[in-house]
Write a sequence for this structure.
């Protein structure tokens, strides 16, 4: 069964730590590249959103509902192949809005993108 943040379609795996953090990995494949052979910006956005969402889900626990209300990305370096690793952290676990951030890096350890996001906690 997939964990919070996993996306089999995009071949990414996210591992929440249960304490407001998450790590993950995406192995670059042809489906991730734009017509110029570079990883599409939307792939970084999906990876960041899923990783930060996994961090939030791990902190909130099962049965809680939330959704992304904003997402800001900074693209720092293009990638064509290899693996993108991500580390996400909840920076402010508010009652109604939760703030998170993440960093993505390539195989060489260099930063390729960073992101921040806000998540709205839905009361059942």
């Amino acid at each position: 069964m997939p964990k919070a943040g996993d996306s089999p379609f995009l071949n990414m795996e996210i591992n929440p730590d249960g304490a407001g953090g998450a790590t993950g990995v995406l192995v670059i494949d042809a489906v991730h590249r734009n017509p110029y052979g570079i990883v599409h910006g939307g792939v970084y956005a999906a990876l960041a959103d899923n990783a930060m969402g996994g961090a939030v889900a791990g902190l909130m626990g099962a049965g809680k509902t939330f959704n992304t209300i904003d997402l800001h990305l900074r693209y720092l370096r293009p990638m064509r192949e290899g693996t993108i690793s991500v580390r996400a952290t909840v920076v402010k676990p508010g009652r109604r809005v939760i703030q998170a951030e993440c960093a993505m890096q390539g195989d060489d350890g260099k930063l390729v993108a960073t992101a921040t996001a806000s998540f709205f906690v839905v009361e059942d």
Residues 8-122 form a domain with the Thiol Ester Dehydrase; Chain A fold (CATH 3.10.129.10). The first helix runs from residue 41 to 60. The first strand starts at residue 12 and ends at 16. The chain has one helix and six strands.
